[in-house]
């Protein structure tokens, strides 16, 4: 039996795409002294073949929610069943970040200090990572890139701000990220401005869901921004070439509340 804190660490491990890697990760959530979780899955999870999404639950006991969960992500946003306005504030600003290709995604790990405030609750910004195509879809249609800004409370509760990218103008922040990944120095620090990766209109879809990677832990506060931002054709091609297709298929809504912006 694992403690709540250990499960949260496992959840964070999965979200960062390290669950099946031979990596140990220590996260101090602030609620308790840091604990270490070492992943030991025998088969490496991925997006096709034996390690593909349909087999995630069979790869490790800890992944059981990938098959048995009823509040899974991603979903089709066009299935929204309620209208509402979610008040979100953020203090995003230029910040130092390390950038890596962890084998599952391209990820930028932010220095501390940024976050969002939703319903008077504060979530700290940890990292942003990418999926090609977007995991959340609109009436069955994908966007070429989805960005997931991962946040957590001090107690380890997760909130993901999802951003959808369309094909258009190049995004300078994505250029910085791609250049860093191609350079390959994961210890180097880069200045990234998260405000340049989100639209000015932060009207949100909101629902309770899960990690979209093993172990598919539930209890994730999903907020997907309705207005997309753009990336160039060349940037989309580079992300797709580096990451391959890394989008989990859409999961059933199962009667959950899915708020769409008024
Ligand atoms: Zn993600």
Structure report:
The chain contains 5 helices and 15 strands. With 262 residues, it is α+β, with helices and mostly antiparallel strands. The strands form 3 sheets. Strands 4, 5, 6, 7, 8, 9, 10, 11, 12, 13 and 14 form an 11-stranded mixed beta sheet that branches. The protein starts with a helix and ends with a strand. Residues 1-41 have low confidence and may be disordered. Bound molecules: zinc ion. The site of zinc ion (ZN) has 4 residues, from β8.
Please provide a brief summary of the model.
The protein has 262 residues and is of the alpha+beta class.
Average pLDDT taken over every residue: 88
CATH class: Alpha Beta
Number of helices: 5
CATH superfamily: Alpha carbonic anhydrase
Q: What is the CA-atom radius of gyration, in angstroms?
A: 17 Å
Bound molecules: zinc ion
Classify the helix fraction into a percent range. 10-25%
- Give the number of DSSP strands: 15
User: How many domains is the backbone divided into?
Assistant: 1
CATH topology: Carbonic Anhydrase II
**N-to-C CA distance:** 43 Å
Q: Which sheet architecture does the biggest sheet show? A: 11 strands, mixed
Order of helices and strands: HEEHHEEEEEEEEHEEEEHE
Determine the structural class based on helices, strands and strand pairing.
Answer: alpha+beta
The assigned CATH architecture is Roll
């Amino acid at each position: 039996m694992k403690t709540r804190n250990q499960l949260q660490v496992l959840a964070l491990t999965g979200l960062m795409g390290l669950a099946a890697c031979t990596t140990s990760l220590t996260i101090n959530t602030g609620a308790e002294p840091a604990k270490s979780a070492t992943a030991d899955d025998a088969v490496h999870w991925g997006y096709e073949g034996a390690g593909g999404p349909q087999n995630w639950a069979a790869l490790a006991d800890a992944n059981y929610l990938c098959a048995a969960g009823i509040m899974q992500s991603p979903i089709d946003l066009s299935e929204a069943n309620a209208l509402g306005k979610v008040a979100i504030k953020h203090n995003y600003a230029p910040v130092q970040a390390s950038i890596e290709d962890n084998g599952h995604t391209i990820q930028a790990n932010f220095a501390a200090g940024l976050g969002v405030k939703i319903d008077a609750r504060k979530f700290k910004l940890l990292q942003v990572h990418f999926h090609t195509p977007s995991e959340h879809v609109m009436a069955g249609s994908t966007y070429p890139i989805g960005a997931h800004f991962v946040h957590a409370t001090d107690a380890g509760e997760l909130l993901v701000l999802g951003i959808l990218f369309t094909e258009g103008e190049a995004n300078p922040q994505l250029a910085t990220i791609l250049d860093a990944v191609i350079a390959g120095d994961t210890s180097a620090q880069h200045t990234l401005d998260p405000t340049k990766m989100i639209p000015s209109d932060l009207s949100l879809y909101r629902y309770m869901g899960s990690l979209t990677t093993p172990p598919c832990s539930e209890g994730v506060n999903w907020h997907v921004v309705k207005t997309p931002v753009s990336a160039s054709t060349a940037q989309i091609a580079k992300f797709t070439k580096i990451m391959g297709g890394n989008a989990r298929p859409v999961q059933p809504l199962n009667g959950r509340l899915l708020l769409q912006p008024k």
